Amino acid sequence: MRDARERAAACIGAQSREIIFTSGGSEADNQAIISAARLGAQGGKKHIISTAFEHHAVLHTLDRLESEGFEVELLPVGELGTITAQQVAAAIREDTALVTVMYANNEIGSILPIPEIGRVCQDRDVLFHTDAVQAAGHIPIDVRAQHIDMLSLSAHKFHGPKGAGVLYARRGIPLTNLISGGAQEGGRRAGTEDVPAIIGMAAALEDACSHIAEHHARVSTLRDRLISGLLQIPNAVLNGDPVNRLPGHVSFCFDGVEGESLILGLDAQGICASTGSACASSSLEPSHVLMAIGRPRELAYGALRITLSSENTDEDVDEILRAVRETVLHLRSRCLQKGDIPVRMTE
Ligand SMILES: *Cc1c(COP(=O)(O)O)cnc(C)c1O
C-alpha cells in the first residue's frame, strides 16, 4: 500500500500523504466536492462554480448541495465543449467556496484549460477541484505546476481494475469522511482497503504515465485518421474540439440515425462503442453533454463514441470506418422507407 501510494503520487506530482484511495472516480468526486462545501460553509461561503457538462458524479453531488442551500453556477461550455479561465475569473465571488471543472470531457473528448483555471483560482484564493478521470494516464498531469488543489482519477480509465480510484487533496485541506468507521487512509476514508485493486491501479497508472508521449503520438494519429474518415459520411458531425481533444477520443452525431441501433449494429460486427457516456447508456434521455454543446435533440440521439488505445492498429481503424459507414447508411435507408428522414443518400 505504501509503495502503491508513492507510485500514484509520483505520477501526478503529488506527495504520498496527499493520496487517498477510494472506490473510484465517483467517490473521489463526491468527497472532494462535499469536503470543499463543508469547509466553505464554515466561513459562510456557499457559492460553487462548475460547468454544464460535468460527469453525473459531479452534477448530482452539486444538485444535493443545492438542495441544502448552496448556490451552484454552471458555466456554459460553447459548441466546442470547453470554457475559458476568463469565464471562471468573472464568475468567482467573495463567497465562492469551490471551483470544480473537469480536465477532459468523457463524452466528447475536449480538453479544458486546467492549468489556466487553476492559476485563476490560486490568485483568488478559491479551492479548485478537477475531475481528471478522463485525463489521468492519457495526458501529463502535475498538480503543483497546474495549481490543482484536489483531483479525482479512476483506475479502469487507464487499463487498471474497476472499483479503484484516487482522490488527491493538497496537504492541509481537511476532508469530510463520507464513510463513518475505522481510521484507514489517515482517517479520511473508512473501511478495509481493496489491496489488490489498489496495487493494480498504481501499476497501471505508472505504466500509462511512463508511456504518455509515445502513446499520445501513436493514438492521436489513429484518432485523426478515424475522424477524417467518418467526416466523409454525409451528415456526420464531429463533437468536441477538433484539435484540443483526448488522444484516443472520437465522438460523432449522425443525423437520421438512432445511436442505440448503431451501437448494436457495430457490436454485431465485434466493435465495442457507446452512444455517449457508458454510465448513461441505459438512459433514454439525450445526453446532457450534447445538449450543453447545443446539439439539437434529434442529432443528439444519433451519437457515437469510440475510444482508441495504444493497443489499436491501423487495420482496426479501417475496419471501424467500413463498419460505421455501412451501418449508418443501412440504418438511414431503413428509415427512408418510413419516409421520416431528411437525409439525401449519396450512394
Ligand atoms: C468514469 C468517470 C467517472 C466515474 O468514475 P468511476 O470510477 O466509474 O466511479 C467520473 N468522471 C468522469 C469524467 C468519468 O469519465
Write a structural description.
With 347 residues, the protein is of the alpha/beta class. It has two domains: 209 residues, Type I PLP-dependent aspartate aminotransferase-like (Major domain) (Aspartate Aminotransferase, domain 2); 127 residues, Aspartate Aminotransferase, domain 1 (Alpha-Beta Complex). It has twelve helices and ten strands. Strand 4, helix 5 and strand 5 form a beta-alpha-beta unit. Helix 2 packs parallel to helix 3 and helix 8 runs parallel beside helix 12. The C terminus is likely disordered.
CATH arch. level architecture of the largest domain: 3-Layer(aba) Sandwich
**Average pLDDT number:** 94
Helix content: 40-55%
What's the shape?
globular
Give the class from helix and strand content and strand pairing.
Answer: alpha/beta
Total domain units? 2
Q: Tell me the number of helical segments per DSSP (H or I, 4 or more residues long).
A: 12
> Beta-strand level of the residues, as a percent range?
5-15%
Class of the largest domain in CATH? Alpha Beta
